Amino acid sequence: MRLWSAGRLTYAALIVTAVLSIFPIYWMFVVASRTNDAMGQVPPPLTPGDNLGANLARLFANTDAHFLTGLVNSTIVAVSVTVSVVFFSTLAGFAFAKLRFRGRNALLLVIIATMMVPTQLGVIPLYMLMTKLNWNDRLPAVIVPALVTGFGVFMMRQYAGQAVSTELIEAARMDGCHTARIYWNVVLPALRPAAAVLGLLTFMTTWNDFLWPYAVLNDPENPTVQLSLRALSDGYYQDMSQVFTGTAIATLPLLLVFIVFGRQIIGGIMEGAVKA
Asked: At a CB cut-off of 8 Å and minimum separation 6, what does 136 contact?
């Protein structure tokens, strides 16, 4: 019992780590509820102010940032990419882990090789392709290139090899289940914890992506939320309370998704432990 019990030093280290991790986010919300004078105060204010409503009104009225449009566009892009990546990654992971077909190992090596190519190297040819498709300044140019990722396929393949029992698949086939039904009723529930992690990582990466939307969305009236935040910080004079307000609003969906997917991850782990 002593081996697994946490001492005072452990609790102290955890408390310090939690405070250092949470304080920047908390102070961001504090500045978002105050005026620009809060940035220069010494010591800095640690309690929320009463200027949040005015900051929000100025933020959504800013015609240069188009912040509301950015939130809507980022939500559409992030949700579409996340659902697609989770679906196709679990489907391909199941195929690579449990199905036997010619060229399986060679195709898996090709998928792994795509993970070794830096994203920046593909920006120019991908931009040329979007131009030929007339997708510039349109959301499909941001969504379609990210619908499937090599990392997601590899992650689901590794997890499916351990979490999905071959005997269970064979039993389902003997009961008359076709491959699509085996995937939906047998494989997908077993992959739920890993799919939740992949969905969380994909949503966060897509929501925070700046480089590719910046390259392909040149219309200032059709930005993603990251491009809207960039517009807020442009110019000689920066309204920092407005910038912090926009950053705080843009952070809320990430916190919400983390809470939802975190519960799914813990629930899946506990379910697997009970079954074991």
From this structure: 130, 216, 217, 218
